[in-house]
# Entry
Amino acid sequence: TDSKGRKDSLTIVLLQEADRFNKLLRVIKNSMRTIKKAIKGLVVMSEELERVYTSFLNNQVPTLWASAAYPSMKGLGSWIKDLVLRIHFVDHWIHNGQPKSFWLSGFFFPQGFLTGTLQNHARKYNLPIDELSFEFEPYPAYRSQADFYNAATSQPAGKPLELDEQIEAVQDGVLVHGLFMDASSWDDENMVVVDAKPGEMNPPLPAVHMLPRQNYVPDAALYKCPLYKTAARAGVLSTTGHSTNFVVAFYIPASKPQAYWIGKGTALLCQVTD
# Structure
């Protein structure tokens, strides 16, 4: 809590994320438990359970699970691996405090995380939140959540990770990672968006420092790059007024005019389809 007794907005976000994942895990656990009983002949195999079982055979995420989960276009095997990383991300945050860099792709509702970041900044500097927006500063480092998971699970709990020592904690805003580029790639030397290399589908974007700024007007030379949760790039407006797929527009430096990248359909993705 701050000096006025208000909880950190990102703590509220964490609680909400944990609740969403718990609900999803309950759906998975209950359906798996019932299927095991149905296979043994202890209960009747309902039509819904049969659809779940058929999805397993076809390496597809069951509709029963997908309806309780986040948007994804992954096959069942990749989806499970991704779910394990997401749960570990939340669990590690609960037990070790806020990470130096947040896995933006790992959130059920990333828009809520971004709003919480703006709210923290508004409270810290007594600014009206409706006048705040993000400035995006690419960070000269890459961070893979899979590498973080392997490092965190291979050493004693509470011990500082070498991966964390490679980046510095930011004072304002948040550092985020885990995004992929579509129809483009990143030039590490000049720190700009460039054309994708031959045969390169979705290269990673380096970590980005999202810094709240008051009455921020982005430079016209920056490319307004949309960030989507999946490669479908299509969603519907939810009851919160947010899209189920579009997250936010990143203003990032690019090697060519904005019209060029718009024509190519250049965008950022939270996850790739595999």
